[in-house]
Amino acid sequence: APEDVYRIAKERGMSYVTLTDHDSIDGALYLLNKNPDMKDFFIGEEVETYFPETGQRIHIGVWGLNEEQHREVQRLRPNIRELIPYMKSQRMLFGINHLFQNYRMKNVAGRYISELLEMFDIFEVLNGAMASFHNRVVQQLSETVRDTGRKIAVVGGSDAHTLKHVGKVYTVSRANSLPEFLQNIREGNCFAWGDNVYTCADPAG
Questions:
Q1: Which are the contacts of 23, defined by CB distance < 8 A and separation ≥ 6?
Q2: Rounded distance, CA 193 to CA 118, Å?
Q3: Is 22 in contact with 49 (CB distance < 8 Å)?
Q4: What is the Cα 57 distance to its own chain's centre?
Q5: Separation between Cα atoms, residue 143 and residue 150, nearest integer Å
Q6: Tens digit of pLDDT for each residue in 144-181?
Q7: First vs last C-alpha separation in the chain
Q8: Using N-to-C axis directions, what is the helix angle for 67-76 and 80-89, rounded to 10°?
Q9: DSSP H/E element including 127
Q10: Is the dihedral of CA 92, 4, 129, 198 positive or negative?
């Protein structure tokens, strides 16, 4: 239940909490409807989208969206080349999750990587459900992007599909409010941390 996820996340030290269900914000809306004064919870979603020419599947984390944006995201999500421009036009906060989890060589590897690095400014470099090697490779790729002078952000997520793993991996930022926390992610003033951490961004920047 959404309230159980929220409770456990708070017990494990989370200042701010979201749910990122697959292509659904129903759980988040349920929790907010039951607790309309909640100041430490925001709507999130994991959006499954595709490269239309290959069917290559991509998962995108979206944070702080509203219901209207969710509906349009769901309409556009079959085509990543339509989805990304819409989210950028809305100045939505989004990043690519577990970059290689769904890679099945439908795209040439070099093209796949370079296109995704160009599309996104936020990269999930620490995923609680992925092997440490995967996290390390994504971390290294994000560092190559940063070395070009682009401003990017790196985040962490538990990818918890059971209560056992809720809040075990997370994004850290110094913030006094939820809007400040989300803005810090947008500006790259954050880093990834959590249990069994293999590598993470330097919190000093």
A1: 45, 46, 47, 48, 74, 77
A2: 24
A3: no
A4: 15
A5: 10
A6: 999 999 999 999 999 998 999 999 999 999 999 999 99
A7: 37
A8: 160
A9: strand 122-127
A10: positive
DSSP letter (8 states) at residue 164: G
Whether the CB-CB separation of 44 and 63 falls below 8 Å is answered with: yes
Whole-angstrom Cα distance, residue 45 to residue 22? 6
Element (H, E) at 157: strand 153-157
Integer CA distances (angstroms), 174 to 19, 112, 143, 178, in order: 21, 34, 22, 11
Tens of pLDDT along 105-136?
A: 666 677 889 999 999 999 999 999 898 888 99
Max distance between CA atoms of the chain, in angstroms, equals 48
Tokens, residue 109: 């590897």
Contacts of 39 (CB under 8 A, 6+ apart): 178
Rounded CA-CA distance 62/65 in Å is 7
Task: Write out the DSSP string of 72-124.
Answer: HHHHHTT-HHHHHHHHHHTT-EEEE-STTTT--SSS-HHHHHHHHHHH-SEEE
Under DSSP, is residue 10 helix (H, G, I), strand (E, B) or coil?
A: helix
Provide the whole-model pTM: 0.91
